[in-house]
Amino acid sequence: MNENYFLVAFYHISYILFSSSCLKNNFLKIIMANITSMNGFLLMGFSDIRELQILHALLFLVVYLLTLTSNLIIIIITIVDQRLQAPMYYFLKHLSLLDLSFISVTVPQSIDNSLMNDGFISHGQCILQVFFFSSLACSELAILTVMSYDRYAAICFPLHYEVIINPSKCQWAVIAVWLSGSISGILFTTATFSITFCKAKIIHQFFCDIPQLLKLSCSNDYLRVIGVSTFMSVLAFICFTSIVLSYIHIFSTVLRIPSAEGRSKAFSTSLPHLFVVSFYVSFGAFEFLKPTSDSPTVFDLLISIFYTVIPPTLNPIIYGLRNEVMKEACRKLLLGRQFTKKTSYLSYC
Question: Which end of the chain is more exposed for a tag (fewer CB within 10 A), N or C?
Fold first, then answer.
């Protein structure tokens, strides 16, 4: 491990020590060979400038703490407040759990790398990061699909809602969400790390990104990952189509509401939900489908932030903390007041 850290540090100072292009090229060949053989990867991150590294670490730390706090608040109040036991809040609790886990996979490692001025990540850490990242990303899309169907059933079939979405079906839906994510993670991780890495193990990203890892292969081993990605893309497209169709039916039902206030309230809830889903899916698909570059730009790094950091930060606000019942429960939690006893199941539909 110490040797690996030494090689990473050696790589960073090589450009400064060797200004002559001839010496630089020869020396870099040696450095690249050493980095290729080391037991780990080098995450390049956002910048080599120390001040920008510190700024990046501080910004990520603030976003991470805000995301962690907001999601933990939602999880706590949906557990302790008996009014928040309807299916909508049950799914929201699991979405918050997925969000805080999802952002914890990449951001703390990136903060540590920036503060320590060391982009090294071991082979084992990279495997775990790919597994949890792909698992939680797929689970997140699955839970958003389930939540859209829940809203569809509640708005379009309010009288049959208790039959369509009963507690047993809620539990099975959540089990399916976590199980599908785990299977996806296993498939992606197995396919990704079955390839032979014969190029310099330099990842131009702040985490172990699968497209960047595929670029390190010198053979056709990556075709397995392409196959898994294609299969998962089809499933993701089916999920996204289901979400869009659910909201189309919701909007058509809402438009028939005679009260302008009722329509406005329904649209103010549904439109942000659809926006977050579209935001998450579109940027994630763009990152996986766009060709990887040998010299990534700031735009490429921003794209990765848009689907790894922004959704877990926005979801608690869009799905939970804009809700009046959630706001009241949050105030009671922060002020230490007693929570309300359980009320009617249908009052949240």
Answer: N
Residue 345 included in any domain: no
Q: What is the CATH number of the domain that holds 167?
A: 1.20.1070.10
Domain that holds residue 313: 39-340
User: b/e per residue, 170-180, with b = 16+ CB within 10 A?
Assistant: beebbeebbeb
- C-alpha to C-alpha distance for 94 and 75, rounded to whole angstroms: 8
First to last CA, the chain: 55
pLDDT (0 to 100) of residue 273: 80
pLDDT digits (tens, 9 = 90+) for 239-253: 999 999 998 998 888
Q: 231 lies in a domain?
A: yes
DSSP H helices, 117-222, are 123-156, 161-164, 167-192, 210-214
Give the separation between CA 132 and CA 185, rounded to whole angstroms.
Answer: 7
Q: What is the largest CA-CA distance in the chain?
A: 78
Residue 297 lies in a domain: yes
Contact assessment for residue 110 and residue 45, using Cβ atoms and an 8 Å cutoff: yes
* Percent with pLDDT over 70 in the chain: 81
CB 84 within 8 A of CB 326: yes
DSSP readout, 335-348? HTPPPPPP--GGGG
pLDDT at 170: 92
CA distance 293 to 188: 21
The residue among 344, 331, 330 whose CA lies nearest residue 76 is 330
What are the two backbone dihedrals, phi and then psi, of residue 48, each rounded to the nearest 5 degrees? -95, -5
Per the structure, how many domains does the chain have? 1
Distance CA 322, CA 338 (A): 21
The residue among 334 and 297 whose pLDDT is bigger is 334
Has residue 238 got a pLDDT over 80? yes
Asked, for residue 93, whether it belongs to a domain, the answer is yes
Cα(233)–Cα(126) distance, rounded to whole angstroms? 23
Summarize the confidence of residues 175-192 as an average pLDDT.
Answer: 93
Distance, in Å, from the CA atom of 18 to the CA atom of 22, rounded to the nearest integer, reads 9
Of the candidates 206, 208, 244, which has an alpha carbon nearest to the alpha carbon of residue 134?
Answer: 208
Helix (H) or strand (E) holding 276: helix 260-289
